[in-house]
Design brief:
The protein is an alpha/beta fold. The chain has two domains: 57 residues, no CATH class; 156 residues, Alpha/beta knot (3-Layer(aba) Sandwich), CATH 3.40.1280. It is 43% helix and 15% strand. The protein has a seven-stranded parallel beta sheet with strand order 3-2-1-6-4-7-5, sandwiched between helices. α1 crosses α8 and α2 packs antiparallel against α8. The protein is elongated.
Length: 218
């Protein structure tokens, strides 16, 4: 449970404009959709996908770092890692298992399957969109366990798009359609308060000392 008194205390260190901005952004956040990137060779692509998640209100991204084990490029992410929750996994199966436990269907984004075109995708289903490596695409592990395959319609000679571009196209479309539905796509009240506390903490220098003093006075 969130300590509401602590949250209110921390928010006294924020400007009114900052507090309102947090609430406005959080009102558009969702965990109905999430993203997983699988061992992407070029780290800046994962960083760009993270930034895309922030832009379109997707609160979580799952990063599988099986072989490369690199870290998010903070310059390219442009601070998005501060506002989007990054869940890291050392292998694909652990990520898939975690997502299924959270009620997500596994959506493999690939130009080589004809299961579903983007404009036909059912946005009412809680979904995680998997994006693979630049060279090889998604692993067989994801392809074999996917609940559906999602394809961006393309009419040119080029067979596929850079994953950061694909993620932007897909997330812009599905989040726009999602907000036109009547389903409860927003964060729960508890999740909303948790992120308010998290973001307030990240915005205040020496927050650990402030929190310690707060509890000393309780």
């Amino acid at each position: 449970m969130i300590d509401i008194q602590l949250l209110e205390h921390l928010e006294t260190f924020l400007t009114q404009e900052r507090k309102e901005r947090f609430e406005d952004v959080l009102s558009q956040r969702t965990k109905h959709f999430t993203v997983a990137t699988e061992d992407v060779y070029q780290l800046h692509n994962t960083s760009a996908v993270l930034r895309t998640c922030d832009v379109f209100g997707v609160q979580e991204i799952h990063v599988i770092e099986d072989r490369k084990g690199k870290r998010i490029d903070r310059e390219i992410a442009m601070g998005a890692q501060k506002w989007v929750d990054v869940n890291r996994f050392s292998n694909t199966q652990d990520c898939i298992t975690h997502l299924r436990q959270q009620g997500y269907q596994i959506v493999a984004t690939t130009p080589h399957k004809d299961d579903c075109l983007l404009h036909d995708f059912d946005v009412t289903k809680k979904s995680c969109f998997f994006f693979g490596t630049e060279a090889d695409g998604l692993s067989e592990e994801v392809l074999n366990q996917a609940d559906c395959y999602l394809k961006i319609p393309m009419v040119g000679f080029t067979e596929s798009l850079n994953i950061s571009v694909s993620a932007a196209i897909i997330l812009q479309y599905v989040t726009t359609k999602l907000r036109q539905t009547n389903i409860a796509w927003q964060l729960t009240e508890e999740e909303f308060l948790q992120k308010r506390l998290d973001w307030a903490t990240k915005s205040i220098k020496s927050h650990d000392k402030i929190i310690a003093r707060f509890y000393e006075g309780v």
